Amino acid sequence: MSEKHYSAGYLESTGDFLKKLKTHSYSPFAKITEGTVLDLGCGTGIDAINLAGMLGKGVHIVGMDHDPALLAKATESAEGVSNVRFEQGEATQLPFADGTLAGLRAERLVQHLAEPGLAFQEMYRVLAKGRPIALVETVWSSLIFYTRHTEIEQKISRFLTNNKVHNGWAAQRLAHDLTASGFSDIRLETFCMVGRSLDDAQRYIWIGHILDEMVARDFLTTAEFDVFSKTMAEADTNGHFLCSMNLVMATAVK
User: Considering the entire predicted model, what is its pTM?
Assistant: First the structure.
């Protein structure tokens, strides 16, 4: 597995960019008045903190992640928020009793899992009957830069989908995986993330980092790197830079 495609700064940047989608992903939990809601793969904790504020003191939010550095950032950000706590853990071994959670949310988590089937089984196990789950995933294969270099764009898409993350087709499989795990009332919605400058692409997609890694790992030639980088820079200078990528939100109940 290559270097992971996120850091605290990256997650905070994309969190700001995807604010409307994030807010929408909280809506399945709006009627919960008591119990525990898990934000799985919580990263820097912004969503857990937002849920804690939205749902009020009667609901306890647990943010869980496997990365201690991200959890340290989350704990620092949550200072003074009494109904949220952060724990280190793995999606395939959730430390909750059967049927005890009032809700479960996970954003851009499943794509990083080597054993997603086990994680879906755990999500189903810990949720109480009739309670909601909301999952948000990136459709890596949908990334487009709207340049004439379509073959290079296809290489970037294939690299991200098949090589950069463990489970690059997670978004397309959400409905199947939820159904196979026993969930019902499954609904899918799509959202388009649009970048209108090279700076957007650098901040929110890490395109420079991606291209560097592709060259280092022989997925892209130096000549391809040069021509694609030049084309993006020219589009940005001339005011017609555009890139886009879809995300999917799946909701269901146990």
Answer: 0.90
Paired strand residues for 187: 251
Task: Return all residues near 204 (Cβ < 8 A) that are at least 6 apart.
Answer: 13, 14, 17, 193, 195
CA distance 235 to 225: 15
Residue pair 74/86 in contact by the 8 Å Cβ criterion: yes
| 204-to-14, 80, 142, 151, 201 alpha-carbon distances in Å | 5, 29, 15, 22, 5
Distance, CA of 251 to CA of 55 (rounded, Å): 18
E strands present in the chain: 35-40, 59-65, 84-88, 103-107, 132-138, 184-195, 243-253
Q: Which two tokens stand for residue 107?
A: 């954003």
In order of start, what are the domains of the chain with their CATH numbers? 8-140+165-193+246-253 (3.40.50.150)
- Element (DSSP H or E) covering residue 230: helix 222-237
121 token code pair: 């089984």
Instruction: Return the H-helix or E-strand segment holding 26.
Output: helix 19-26
Crossing angle for the helix pair 8-17 and 68-77, to the nearest 10 degrees: 60
pLDDT tens string 183-208: 999 999 999 999 999 999 998 889 99
CB 199 within 8 A of CB 206: no
Mean pLDDT value of segment 129-144: 97
